[in-house]
Amino acid sequence: MKRIKQNSILAFFILCTSIITLQAQEKSTKLTNDLSNLIDKSNSFQDYKVIKKASITNFQASLNSYIKQEQSIQTNLENQINANNKEINALEKELKTIKNTNEKLAAEKANINFLGLSISKESYSITMWALFLGALAAAVILFLSFKRANKVTKESKTLLADLEEEYQNYRGVCVEREQSLRRQLFDEVKKSKDLKNVS
User: Which of 101, 106, 116, 166 is the most exposed place for a label (fewest CB within 10 A)?
Assistant: First the structure.
């Protein structure tokens, strides 16, 4: 952007200089023609040229006009050069300001404020992925632990149900045995009473 502005200012300066040079050449050609006319219209006297006062005064006025115009053109060019230099300096300062602002924005864009800390995007990304993968690993571990605990619980329930059934069966067998033993005892007690009574 700086080069474009400098190139455009330089092109403008060259254009102005060439236009002024063309005008100066035209004026110079006019002066040369006036001088040639003055010499041609002058009279000769013993190897000297005699020039009319009016002609020499006109030529002098034309020459003074040319000199004043050239001085004014030179002053204008110097003023224009100074103005261009001031503009170039102002543009350079503006460019420095823009570059500084751009660098600050690039630095701000490369960083993220997280919990009041300025962290680079790469560090933030790595941290977030690490946290995500850690949370995912913890979730997988908890899921597998839950699944294993659920399996153990189901097996324990099945085993408990089997044990309860076996206990109920054993209890039933024990009750039957106890009843049969009571009957036998009762029968034996009855036999023994019968034997005592008989004897």
Answer: 116
